[in-house]
Amino acid sequence: MILDGFTTAQVIRTKISEEVSRYKDIITLAILMVGKNQASQIYVRNKEKACEEVGIKTKVYQFDENISQKEVLKMIDECNKDDSINGILVQLPLPGHINEEDVLDRIDPKKDVDGLNLVNQGKLALGKKCIEPATARGVITLLKNNNIELYGKNVVVIGRSKLVGKPLALLMLQENATVTVCHSKTQNLKDFTKKADIICIAIGQPKFLTGDMIKRDSVIVDVGINRVAGTLCGDVDFDDCKEIASYITPVPKGVGPMTIATLLQNVLKCYKIQKNLLD
Fold first, then answer.
1. Active-site residue among 114, 197, 222, 237?
2. Domain co-membership, 146 together with 188
3. Residue-level pLDDT at 230
4. Where would a tag sit more exposed on the chain, N or C end, judged by fewer CB atoms within 10 A?
5. Is 41 a catalytic residue?
């Protein structure tokens, strides 16, 4: 069965729009982008459009490729102090001369919509309430909304990035799954994937996971997005796996829409934290 992230995300976005309309304040997301990376420009436009559709205002700060790290940090400081800005997002990747961790850690944890600040990452590791990376939370939401049981299941996460792999493994642990994290240095990967009830993959390698690597009726979540010969595909060989898996996400219209929907949820969550509207 296809795990339709697009439809699930639309339901979430409708609820967000309804909630945003009930508040008197204008909820605002600041997006900082350095350079003119073509893919990043597309992602930023998509985020702007998604925000507009649910009634969230965006302020985009576009910087020259050669801007100094000091100037980027200064802008983040200004956004942190500005009470009219509820969320701050730094579009990644950053140019090589700018330290990504320094920039992300400068964001006020209460405005950190990507959940990549050291404070939010630390709270996530400890199982405390925090703002969670959107893709990881989006995967959990998609699985739960399709009544896929996580409790006690054998979950393999392929990839260990701080954006997807690590936070997703931690969120799976919070759901009482038994989690194995595999990566580029893992030996005999198939020994792990063949035993998995659920496989989540985010490694950026087109069609890497094939049918002979999964067990029958497993659940396959493809977080990857790659362009091959002008066509989008994921890290999973979809055609090879779809008849073996019980559930599988497509690319596109799988995890991608869930990431955007969860990002919008995070902006709203930041606003609520700042206004003391959360328990």
1. 114
2. yes
3. 86
4. C
5. no
**Is the same domain home to 90 and 141?**
no
Co-location of 78 and 30 in the same domain: yes
CATH number of the CATH domain containing 152: 3.40.50.720
257, 275 contact by CB (below 8 A): no
Instruction: Find where tokens 């790290």 sit.
Output: 69
Query: In terms of DSSP H, where are the helices of 146-254?
Result: 165-174, 189-193, 238-241
**Boundaries of domain holding 39:** 23-110
For residue 39, what pLDDT is reported?
84
Catalytic pick from 91, 121, 265, 274? 91
Please work out, in degrees rounded to the nearest 5, the angle formed at the alpha carbon of residue 259 by the alpha carbons of 257 and 262: 110
Residue 160 token pair: 């260990």
CA–CA separation, 27 and 21 (whole Å): 10
Q: Is 82 an active-site residue?
A: no
Residue among 215, 253, 211 at smallest CA distance from 234: 253
pLDDT at 84: 97
pTM (2 d.p.):
0.96
- What span, in angstroms and rounded, lies between the C-alpha atoms of 185 and 248? 25
Q: Report the domain count for the chain.
A: 2
Could you tell me if 159 and 104 lie in one domain? no
Below-70 pLDDT ranges, the chain: none
Tell whether 207 is covered by a domain: yes
47 is catalytic: yes
Distance separating alpha carbons of residues 195 and 168, to the nearest angstrom: 19
Which CATH number does the domain housing residue 50 bear? 3.40.50.10860
Two tokens at 3?
Answer: 């795990």
Tell me: the pLDDT tens digits for 92-117? 999 999 999 999 999 999 999 999 99
The contacts of residue 82 (CB under 8 Å, 6+ apart) are 30
Residue 96 lies in a domain: yes
Is the Cβ–Cβ distance between 38 and 50 less than 8 Å?
no
Residues 105 and 146 in one domain: no
Residue 3 lies in a domain: no
